[in-house]
Structures are given as structure tokens and as C-alpha cells.
Amino acid sequence: MRRVLLTGAATAAMAFCLASATQAKTYKLTVAAGQAPRALASLKMLGKYFIPEVNKRLKAMGSNHKIRWRQAYTGSLLKPTKVFLGTQDGVADIGYVPTIFHPDKLPLDAVAFMAPFCTDDLSKVTNAINAVYAKVPQMDGQYSKFNLIRLNGSGVDSYQLLTNFPVKSLADMKGKKIGTAGSALQWLRGIGVTSVQAHMFRYYNDTKTGIYQGFIIMGSPIPPMKYPEVAPYVTRVNFGAMYAVALVMNKDSMKKLPADVQKAIRGAAKSWGPIGDKGHIGAGRWGWNTGKKMFKKATFSEFPQAERVKWANAMPNIAKEWAARMEKKGLPGSKVLTLYMDALRAQGVKCARNWDKK
């Protein structure tokens, strides 16, 4: 009888192993981005951290499933402004989406840009954004209606000012033409400046040819883009780090995956966010320090805090204006703004202006 029981147990174990081997499957997933990994720390960490971390988590679970990854960056599959649509349609399974390209589809994600002059600590900005996501269902709803799941978010290091004239006070800006991109144009309102819509790949030539006399950009691209050659006055105004990126996944692609693979992806994405933020904070410091060493003829200076506060208060309350526009669309703009500011304050952040108050 004992021999029969042992044989039965062995047979059952063998059957289980055979069934597990049969059920093991390799899933093909494509990750896409329009930018080059070398240009953005959080994007670089998709290949360097997120993908290996998913594989690591699957192995730690004892999962028999594997993923065959296809990485398509630098616009090789989808251009920067097309990653959202391409992931929605399933051209890519996972997409690195700059939220600033889609104010029509992701209007609530603009809240950080509407509240500048807060902090250069990107991790605190992202923490505040995630706190809003946890309390406002409409935040995730922005993605859900486009057949997408927001896995996590990240951002970019603090924005600074580069000009071809010295800037020691807000008064020095009056009458000048300044270029910048997207929502950052709002930061130039009310200070006597003519703002010009542009982007980082135009700043060098446009300043050189006199289209404008300066521009607003993050600190990290300063050395590689050689901006101080044409805008030698580099002023650390610290407009603030900004939430600007969402890592998204196609809903149908996610549904096709077994539970353990889904869990590994969600878990890796959750830890990717803080790592990407840390990379951007470091990149911002690197950009400033390396720029000072590279461009000996340039002047790197700190904008006085009193002038920074004066700048913030000279602007119209762009945050409350934004919140009102959201409310007209039936979106909880005021709630999102208040929760965001409260989440920053809870982390000890003191903005130059309480955008939800006045």
C-alpha cells in the first residue's frame, strides 16, 4: 500500500510539472518612446531598470512565463507626439508619453505647470501628483477612456532661464522677447515680456538669429545643447521641477497577460517612477555644474529669492484660471489644484505663491 501511495504522489508531481511546462508562455511586448534614452533619465531607466525589473520579479515569483521585449525609442516606431495614440491603438503595448503634448486629452495632468516657483525636488512633485491620482478618479479616467492604463508618472528637472543679457531682477526682463514651450508660456504673463512659442531644438538658432533674447529650459540639456554659446547669462530662477511624463499600457495588451505578469509590470512601474525622478534631479545638477565648467565665458548666477517671489506675484493666478477652465469642462480642477498644493505643503514645500489661495 505504501509503495502505491508513493507512486501516486510521484505521478501527481510529474503531472503538475508537465502541466506547468505546457502552460509556460512567452509574451511579446513592445515599449515605445519618441525621444532618445540618453536625453531623458526616466526614459533611460525603462531599458536599464524597468524591463530587467519585470523579468526579475517574474523569476522571483517562480513564474514560468517570459517576456520577449521589443524596445523602440527615438521615434523609430512612434514619433514623440504619436506615442499616446500609438499605444491606444496597440501599435505599442507600453508607451512613454510626455503629458505636455496632450493638453486636450490629459488636461488635469497640467496642474504642476500651472503652479510654478515651488520646488526643484522632482520626487516631491511626483509624490504630490500621485496623491491627487489616489483621491480623484477622473485622473485615471483621462487614460481609461482612451483604452490606456497609467502605470506611473515621472517628470523633468527644474526649469531655468538663459538669456543674452544679464538678469539680476524682474525689472531686467521688461520689454524682452523670451521663447519657451507649451504651458511654460504662462510663466511669462504679467511681467512685461513678449512670449514666443518655441521648443528646445529651436532655442539655439532662434536666439542666435535674434528671434528672441532668451528662453526657459530645464538645466539638464544645457551642456549637450551648448545653449550658453548664444545665451551666456544662465540664471537659476528655479521655476520648479515639473510632472511631465506618463508610462502607459494598452488595456487590451494588459488583459491578455496572466495575473503574475500583470503584477510584475505594475510593481516594476511603481518603483521605476522614483528612480526616474532621482535620475532627473541628478541630471539637472549635472547640467548646471558641467555647464559652468564647459562655458568659461558664460555667467552662471542665482536669481534672488525676493525677485523670484516678485515674479510669481506679478503673474495672474494662472492656476486658478486653469482650475476654472477645467470646471467649465465638468472636470474637478479646483479639487485637483487644492489637493496638489496640500500634498506639496505636507512635504515641507514652500512655494513662492500659494496658487490655490490667491
Please summarize what this structure is:
The protein is α/β, with parallel strands linked by helices.
Describe the structure.
- This protein is α/β, with parallel strands linked by helices and 358 residues long.
- The chain is built from 12 helices and 9 strands.
- Strands 1, 2, 3, 4, 5, 6, 7, 8 and 9 form a 9-stranded mixed beta sheet that branches.
- Helix 2 (41-61) runs antiparallel to helix 9 (259-294), helix 4 (122-135) crosses helix 5 and helix 11 (318-328) crosses helix 12.
- The N and C termini lie far apart (84 Å).
- The relative contact order is 0.16.
- Residues 1-7 and 11-22 have low confidence and may be disordered.
Task: Fill in the keyword field for this structure.
358 residues, alpha/beta, D-Maltodextrin-Binding Protein, domain 2, 9-stranded mixed beta sheet, 12 helices, 9 strands, globular, disordered N terminus
Architecture blueprint of SSEs:
Elements (H helix, E strand, L loop, with lengths): L1 H22 L2 E7 L8 H21 L4 E7 L10 H6 L5 E5 L23 H14 L1 H8 L3 E16 L13 E4 L13 E4 L5 H6 L5 E5 L3 H4 L7 E18 H5 L3 H36 L4 E4 L2 H10 L3 H11 L4 H14 L12
Parallel strand pairs: 1-2, 1-3, 5-6, 5-7, 8-9
Antiparallel strand pairs: 3-8, 4-7, 4-8
Helix pairs in contact: 2-9, 4-5, 4-12, 11-12
Instruction: Name the CATH superfamily assignment.
Output: Bacterial extracellular solute-binding protein, family 7
Gross CATH architecture: 3-Layer(aba) Sandwich
- Classified by CATH, the class is Alpha Beta
| Residue fraction in strands | 15-25%
Seen as an oligomer or otherwise, the chain set is single chain
| Rg calculated over all Cα atoms | 24 Å
Overall form: globular
